[in-house]
């Protein structure tokens, strides 16, 4: 068994001694605003993970939309993220109201490097802003306004190790439990099951925006 008294890192000095100093490229890439190069990456991304924190703990929420509509770059220090239809848990939004710190990680299909943005957010329901994000006649109920504090790209090692964009690495249908099956197992059959899975595609089309 590991010895917790000798095998656990407990302070920054131990951590820094183990890993050493970051390379110059790892620090030069971080800036407090959105450069032209970083803007190009943001506008090419159809997917981001939004990390927030609140009294109940942490949350990391997937966000997806068409490239250029997922997030709008209002200016080099401001991002606008429409809150599209979801499950109404509003975990991220609840957290932002009580702790404005947020982190975003953007992924671009076929591209190894990710882009990370940290900042502070608030929620807006300004009518003109909501209207500017209308898709197929439907506006988001709120927009997350992010005041950017740091931006940097994440090198491609993680994506390459995961073989994330390689077709042969995809997990085929039938190899994992479906949402309906998971819900049925957790609710002793009261929720979910095959009817849930069968209806999901149509339900998603009707409630996409």
UniProtKB/TrEMBL annotation:
Alphabetical list of InterPro entries matching this protein: Pyridox_Oxase_FMN-dep, Pyridox_Oxase_N, Split_barrel_FMN-bd
Sequence ranges assigned to domain Pyridoxamine 5'-phosphate oxidase N-terminal in this UniProt record: 34-155
Protein name in UniProt: Pyridoxamine 5'-phosphate oxidase family protein
């Amino acid at each position: 068994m590991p010895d917790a008294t000798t095998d656990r890192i407990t302070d920054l000095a131990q951590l820094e001694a183990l890993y050493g100093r970051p390379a110059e490229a790892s620090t030069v890439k971080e800036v407090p605003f959105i450069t032209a190069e970083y803007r190009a990456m943001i506008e090419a991304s159809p997917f981001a993970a939004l990390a927030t924190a609140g009294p109940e703990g942490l949350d990391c929420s997937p966000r997806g939309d068409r490239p250029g509509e997922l997030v709008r770059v209002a200016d080099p220090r401001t991002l606008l993220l429409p809150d599209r239809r979801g499950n109404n848990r509003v975990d991220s939004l609840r957290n932002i109201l009580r702790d404005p710190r947020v982190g975003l990680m953007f992924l671009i299909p076929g591209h190894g490097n990710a882009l990370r943005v940290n900042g502070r957010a608030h929620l807006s329901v300004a009518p003109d802003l909501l209207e500017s994000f209308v898709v197929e006649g439907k506006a988001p109920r709120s927009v997350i306004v992010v005041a950017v504090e740091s931006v940097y790209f994440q090198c491609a090692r993680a994506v390459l190790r995961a073989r994330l964009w390689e077709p042969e690495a995809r997990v085929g249908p039938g190899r994992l439990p479906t949402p309906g099956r998971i819900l049925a197992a957790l609710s002793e059959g009261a929720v979910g099951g095959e009817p849930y899975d069968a209806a999901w595609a149509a339900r998603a089309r009707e409630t996409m925006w």
